[in-house]
Specification:
Blueprint lengths: L28 H7 L9 H13 L4 H12 L4 H17 L1 H8 L2 H11 L5 H6 L2 H7 L1
C-alpha cells in the first residue's frame, strides 16, 4: 500500500490493526460521505465525533480514510473541500495514529499547506511593504 498524494514511504501504510477474535470493526463510510457532503449545511459535531471514533477503532483504515479525505480536499467543490479539511483537522487532533500517518505523507501536507495559504493576487503584491517584498524575493 502506498501513501496518498505521491509519497511512498508512509510508516502506517502497512500497519495491521489488533487481531480480534470476533468480527473486526470497519470504518462507516456513510459517516465519512455525510461529513463531506456537497450541501451548504455545516457538518454537525456529533458526526465528526463518529468519524473519529470509527477511525480510532480501525487504525488499519487510516490510509484509506486519509486518501478519501485528500481526494475530497482536491476536488473543485468548495463545500466538500472545507468539510474534508475539517474532518482531517478533527481526526489529526483526536487520533494519534491518523495524525502520524498524515505527518508521514509529505505530498498531502504540501497540498493542505497550499490550501491554507492566503491567495496571492497581483493587487496584494502592490500593497506589500518594501520589507515584505525583500523577504519574499
Amino acid at each position: 500500500s502506498t501513501c496518498l498524494a505521491g509519497s511512498s514511504n508512509c510508516v502506517w501504510a502497512n500497519r495491521q490493526g489488533p487481531q480480534i477474535a470476533h468480527a473486526p470493526f470497519m470504518v462507516n463510510w456513510i459517516h465519512l460521505q455525510n461529513a463531506t457532503s456537497p450541501d451548504n449545511r455545516p457538518t454537525p459535531g456529533w458526526l465528526f465525533n463518529e468519524v473519529v471514533q470509527d477511525v480510532k477503532r480501525c487504525p488499519k483504515d487510516c490510509p484509506d480514510v486519509a486518501e478519501y479525505l485528500m481526494q475530497c480536499v482536491c476536488c473543485d467543490q468548495l463545500n466538500i473541500q472545507l468539510k474534508a479539511v475539517l474532518c482531517i483537522k478533527h481526526l489529526s487532533s483526536e487520533d494519534v495514529t491518523f495524525q502520524q500517518y498524515m505527518q508521514s505523507c509529505h505530498g498531502a501536507l504540501k497540498i493542505l499547506d497550499d490550501i491554507a495559504a492566503p491567495p496571492l493576487v497581483p493587487q496584494a503584491r502592490s500593497l506589500e511593504s518594501q520589507d515584505v517584498k525583500i523577504v519574499r524575493e
